[in-house]
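Hey,
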Amino acid sequence: MKVATAAYNLDWLDSWAQYEDKLGRWVSDAAGQGAELLVFPEYGAMELSTLDGVDVAGDLERSIRAVSDRMEAAQALHQRLAQEYKTYILGASAPIVDGPGRPVNRAALYAPDGGQDHQDKQIMTRFEREDWDIAPGGPLKLFDTALGKIGVLICYDSEFPLLGRALREADLILVPSCTEALAGYWRVRIGAMSRALENQCVTVMASLVGDNEWSEAVDRNTGTGGIFGPPDRGFPATGVLAEGSLNQPGWTYADIDLSAIAEVRTDGHVLNRTHWEEQSPRVDSVTLSRL
């Protein structure tokens, strides 16, 4: 299969039609290159807040509510495009008000046959906890698709090995991200590459890029698209199948062979995925005397 992962820049939107045209162009461009799975980044839906004006877009709480209110229409648009172009699409995540509690950070996966489901972020960053008050959502899910088994770890979630371990049956783990600084981008990238190593699978990282003076939430963004595998038999020695240019909007593509994932899991030079039970939790405390 061919996978496309986005370095996605936000725009100021003056109309819903402008958003439809933009998303349609992105999907059309990737599908035109033969991509069967398209991955958009974390919080890419925040541009929808601009449809309610500068005062709303620039306010943390009001922008959350504005985006959440428009997600039903955004989901319908994504579903239509997935069916029209016969692709799977992981839509850009959004803060979603789902019930009486605080909003969750949710990314939806759309199938070309009209099916859809979603994954909520599990662990919040400091900004999400302390400023936005975004809440953890529902459990991790493993999506069984015609392209293989797919899991999603939203940004910070990719930095936690036990979340990755819970998705050990996934062939692909998608990592939509939103990182302000270069250090944040590399934290998520290192997490994504580590999960590919541990699970002997492919991870697909998408990034939000560009500056948005109108937003307090996503005003600075650094990153690029990247697709990673285990540095082992059947994969590049670096583990990097493809990577884009830093902070340059656009798609990054890679061809992925599921048989290569199956082979490295059964007969790789190392078998990381099978050795979790050999990790002892015991740690002895040792004091060394000064000479």
